[in-house]
Amino acid sequence: MSMRLSTVILPVRRWHEGGRDQWTRAEELGFHAAYTYDHLSWRSFRDGPWFGAIPTLTAAAAATRSMRLGTLVTSPNFRHPVTLAKELISLDDISGGRVTLGIGAGGNGFDATALGQEAWSPRERADRFAEFLPLLDRLLTEDAVTQEGAHYSALEARNVPGCVQRPRLPFAVAATGPRGMRLAARHGQGWVTTGDPKLYEDGTPEQSREALRRQVERLGKACAEEGRDVAELEKVLLTGFTPDRGAPMSSLDAFVDFAGRHRELGFTEIVLHAPIPDSDFAADQEVFERIATEGPKQLG
To answer: Which residue from 11, 40, 105, 267 has the fewest beta carbons nearer than 10 Å?
Structure first.
């Protein structure tokens, strides 16, 4: 089974002060895709520069030619399906059909209260996501949509001419629980995980791989219940949040070992964070570039 290698470029640099160069360099290095986070701010980066995902991806679409682009991940925390659909259709058009939407239920970080609302409970986040995702699916595939929901509604929302990619741009659904897995099986062309967050502090790489194996099994069960072959879905691991932390970026050999072990679990795409000095994603740029150019060849 071949494995794709992609990267995440956090939107922390001004476009004309290194931001653009990161995206064009990612394409030169041969990454399958370059993603960015879709947040208003994020954790330790909250008090520093942080730019919007959709404008950043639009600029990246104009600066690159063939590399896929996307979010890891968008959520309902500060989005509405009607406005998001219009932006995605525009981005898909500008990129020539190179956009993948990573999307999940969201969390309780800074985005959860930035619009002045109380943070949603896990159940409400799940309820909202279960309504948000099917409506977004309709908005991206139908010319006009009217739908009234408990949380999200659309009234004659027009989306002509639709996506360049047909019937719409692909969804990579971030999920670990049963409701999210069902949504991934029903609407996703891919599935995204960061592993089991409970293992990040005190778990071992072996425990993490076992947890991921069980997640893949649950995805397979959800797909079977939806009448889908789980092989139809790309299985994407966003690295940096398992007990391995930055170890896969320490050397080419370390990456190849990490990626090979996760390929055995069924993963088809590994996503590495582009290095950011003095952060949780600090890494040697030369090693990162060597992984990008030589890693896929060694994996075969």
So the answer is: 40
